[in-house]
Each structure stands twice: as C-alpha cells, then as structure tokens.
Design goal:
By secondary structure, the chain is of the alpha+beta class. It folds into two domains: 117 residues, Jelly Rolls (Sandwich); 71 residues, Arc Repressor Mutant, subunit A (Orthogonal Bundle). Helices cover 37% and strands 20% of the residues. The protein has seven helices and ten strands. The strands form three sheets. The protein has a four-stranded antiparallel sheet. The longest helix is centred in the middle third of the chain and has 25 residues. The radius of gyration is 18 Å and the shape is globular.
Length: 235
C-alpha cells in the first residue's frame, strides 16, 4: 500500500464529530492549539497507509474519518483488528507499529500524534491529558469486548446483524437512524472473520426478514433485531 506524505494543517481544519460515543472529542481537537508544535496533524486519502502516525512509539488519534487497524497473516490475508473513528486513540501499545498496519478507510481523514516522550512529560503536569487518553483506552477495551461477542454469535446471519448494529450505533451516537457505512463488505468480512460471500448472503437474509433496510448500497437502517442481536448497549 502506498505511503502518504502527511501534509500538516492547522488545528481549525478538523472534521465534524461523527458519534457522541467518542471520548470528549472536542478536547482532543483542542490539543493542537493548546500544545502547539509538539502535536503533529496530518491529512490522508482513502487507502493510504498511515503507519507513520504511530512510528517511533508515537501516540495518535483520529480527528476525522476512519482508520483500520489490521494484522496481515503469513499467507497474505488481512484480519481487521479494530476500526478507529473520530476521538479514538491508537498506538498506546509501544509495539503497535511492529505488529499491525494502519490503513485509511475514508477520504479527507485527519490524524494527530504526539511523541511518547512528550506525552510522558506532559501527563505529570496535566492530569486532564492523562484522563483523556485513559478514557479512550477504556473505550477501546469495551469496543473489543463487544466485538468478541459479535464473533461469538452462533450463525453468520446473527454475526452480521450484531456487527451492523454495533457499527451503526457508533456512527449514529446510539440513535436509531440511517447511517452510511464507511467500509465495504470485504471490510466487514475481514473484521468479523467470515467470507465476503457469507456477508452478502447474510445481508440479503436480513433484508428479507426486514431487519435492515438499504437506502443505498452502504446506507442502511437497522430495524427490530431483538431475536438476532444480543449485545450490551455502550452509552
């Protein structure tokens, strides 16, 4: 995948908030103006590899757009580990850049990063900064726990229904409204761990049952899925 050349932008050129679930997103946006040059902001295009955000053990976060965190198997297959949306922090593990690859999923994606040395120096004098990143880490754990429950569903139709509910509620801020998915069926397959053909069959079955309505190929509304979806609400 091609490596983008990050273009540094001012703190005012950030994206809009996509979900009320993100951790105090406005505070993360304000870090650029507050901390100045130690925060680096970069602009990316869809399909760009943005491993550089967490290079040299730096810590990054998403300002707008969506980033996929993936693991590439020895046979070349991709497994999506996590999807980062605005407000999500990544690179908290010092070895993230060694084991995982990060790829941009949407156009006009903005990321910010701070060097780990600068971060460690700041948290001692700015407890609110530590709190922001701590809350984001807790959200990441909760998100991955929910995804484990998605993968543990019995049938592929249940897996896809649960996955679509989880993603839709992240995008809509827990509101039951139509959302446009910023990922393909191949992405869904790689994240859930099933074949893309199985994802397509499951979506067709969910439409037949009236569980989802597709207003466009990626724009969907999730209807009553109580019998298929059994996941905790992450408010």
């Amino acid at each position: 995948m091609p490596q983008a050349t990050p273009s540094h932008v001012s703190g005012s050129e950030n994206g809009t908030r996509q979900s009320s679930e993100v951790v105090r997103h406005e505070d993360l946006l304000a870090l650029k103006d507050e901390l100045g040059p130690i925060i680096s902001v970069s602009h990316w295009r869809r399909a760009d590899c943005c491993d550089a955000v967490v290079g040299n053990e730096a810590i990054g976060w998403v300002l707008s757009g969506l980033i996929r965190k993936s693991f590439i198997l020895e046979n070349g297959q991709r497994r999506i580990v996590d999807l980062m949306m605005p407000g999500d922090v990544f690179g908290l593990r010092t070895d993230d850049a060694q084991f995982f690859t990060f790829e941009v999923s949407t156009e006009d994606t903005l990321t910010a990063k701070i060097g780990r040395r600068d971060f460690n120096a700041l948290v001692a004098t700015r407890p609110t900064l530590y709190q922001l990143f701590f809350e984001s880490a807790c959200r990441t754990i909760a998100r991955l726990e929910t995804h484990i429950l998605v993968q543990g569903r019995t049938t592929s139709t249940q897996k896809v229904a649960s996955y679509l509910r989880s993603i839709s509620r992240r995008l809509s801020g827990n509101q039951d409204i139509a959302v446009t998915l910023p990922l393909s069926r191949y992405d869904i397959a790689d994240h859930v761990g099933i074949a893309v053909e199985t994802v397509s069959r499951a979506i067709t079955e969910l439409r037949r049952q009236g569980v989802i309505e597709l207003e466009a190929p990626r724009c969907l509304s999730l209807r009553d899925a109580a019998e298929l979806v059994d996941l905790p609400d992450r408010r």
